Amino acid sequence: MLIDWFLALLPILVIILLMVGFRWGAAKAGPAGWLVAVLVALLRFGAGIDLVALSQVKALLLTSDVLLITWSAFLLYRVADEAGAIQILSQAIPGLTRDRVLQALLIGWAFASFLQGVGGFGVPTAVTAPLLVGLGFSPMAAVLIPSIGHSWSVTFGSLATSFQALIASTGYAGEILAPPSSAFLAIACLVCGYQVAHISGGWGAVRRLFWPVLVLGIAMGIAQFSLSTNGLWNIAALGGGSAGIVVGFLVARFRGRQAAEQNTAKIKGRMLLLALSGYIALVVITLAIQFIPPLRSALSLIVIRVPFPEISTSLGHLTPAGYGREIPLLRHAGAILAYSSLVAYLLYSRAGLYTPGAGLRVLKTTVQRMLPSSLGIAAMVSMAVVMAHAGMTETLARGLSEGMGSLFPVISPWIGGLGAFMTGSNTNSNVVFANLQLRTAELLGFSAPIILAAQTAGGAIGSIIAPTKIIVGASTTGAAGKEGSILRSLLFYVFPLIGLISLLTLLALWVTSP
Amino acid sequence: MNNGFSFRNRNRFSLQAIAFAMITLPAFGLYQSASNGNIGLTLVLMGIVAVGMGLAIWVN
Fold first, then answer.
1. Count of structural domains, chain A
2. A132-155 pLDDT tens trace
């Protein structure tokens, strides 16, 4: 029914209206959205108080999962910043190239994609946005650049967590899903590069750096495509980001040889290495945990696992019994960031880069900066979980799919994007919507792998406008409270990207139709 | 009214911490109460979460 569909949409409309229309911050709009979602769930969707309560507990697990990363990512940044490392990096990267747009491409596109490959939720933006601010970009641009820059690598990022969720939700083999998914995302990668250039320097920059962006984009897109279609999807984004860094370095050296020579003398190699030590530690520890099985097993001993009973609404929407979000405490992305922070702190201390009381200052500013953001994240995640358990999310998706009929392939990536916007992640979007997309595709006679590729590609791009991710970026650049403005600016770039996925979906269906 | 705003500005960080605690900490009790069908305790704890959300709106 239309009224149910509208009421299911109401919490999202409230969030969008408050953040975009009234420019409320996420910490204020999130609780308002939660209150509306709970009221609609209780009064219209047949949710009982026990369902809302258990949703709240599940939401706390998800919130902890997210906050572990955001707090630790900011801690790592503060450890480096307090030692002056960010300032050193800020001087060094212009040494590689003085071209500000190329700097943005190297940090916000290639490096952010690499971090998405090794890290996870919010890490690329949380780590690179402060670097961009240090290079003189505005806090707004510093959030937009890495957000757009890493969006194409989300599905195969975090060691392909979202892609694994797609496989698990649909039962389709990865070998079947990987080609269309990585093909869509490879083309999106190229567009992301031009969008980063546009944010950094307008249309002039897009024209001026047309060829470098093309070379970088092709290198990253092909690397991810090749790895994922050869069964190595867990390191596909990591490979794509690495290719971007190597090719980007070569492009920057080729274009800015003179600038590099002039600046090499200013910063000694040892200082640069020391400044980067926290981030090098992050990469080394992540790779060690992923690819050294005994270490991974040892760090997997402590896992927070909470079993939940089957719960249903009085209207019959059922959530089966199972575990909530499992948190492997010692090998969690947040724990890895915390280890990296500790390693960096010890190295900086040993090098005498801290003044007395630095440790306390680092901790104090981390708490002060992250607390308001944590409020917004907790509220948004709670809202999304209540909506999913009350059947509001499914009502939304069904309405969108059934209403569109033969135009379903056009709307398919938008459903993925909507799911990621609401739940804050591509993985959750795939878990919630992939099966629905699969069933609808089968009913309407469309190729399921292509529709599922549209789902995950839309989810990857839509995940960057999830309020929780925007809060992460805003909080690490001092733009807290301006999340509404950031969302509005991001939409300008995200809508064309998801629209592109729609066109690619239609094209792929047309090409593969008998 | 001005006193209220002044109080809020002076104690913003503490109020945010209280709101965060009210939103997250009841989850521990909610798991037990909802699993055991203790509706009264569930309602009280959900009330605390709702007040925490309201406090978050006011303080931010």
1. 1
2. 888 889 999 999 999 999 999 999
Output the CA angle A74-A75-A80, nearest 5 degrees: 100
Across the interface, do B42 and A53 touch by the CB < 8 Å criterion? yes
Q: Decide if B30 contacts B46 (C-beta within 8 A).
A: yes
Rounded distance between C-alpha atoms, residue A15 and residue A139, angstroms: 22
Evaluate whether A224 touches A153 at the Cβ level (below 8 Å): yes
Domain ranges of chain B: 2-59
Q: Which of the four pLDDT bands, split at 50, 70 and 90, describes residue A467?
A: confident
How far is the C-alpha of A144 from the C-alpha of A473, rounded, in Å? 9
Task: Please identify among residues 28-57 of chain B the ones whose CB lies closer than 8 Å to any CB of chain A.
Answer: 30-31, 33-35, 37, 39, 42-43, 45-46, 49-50, 53-54, 56-57
3-state class (DSSP) for residue A319: strand
Range of the domain at A448: 2-512
Q: Give the pTM.
A: 0.74
Among B5, B11, B4, B20, CA closest to B55: B20
Contact criterion met (CB below 8 Å) for A112 and A152: no
* Nearest Cα to Cα of residue A279 among A491, A131, A426, A412: A131
Please state, in angstroms and as integers, the Cα–Cα distance from residue A78 to each residue in A278, A353, A363, A364, A473, following that order.
Answer: 11, 13, 8, 10, 14
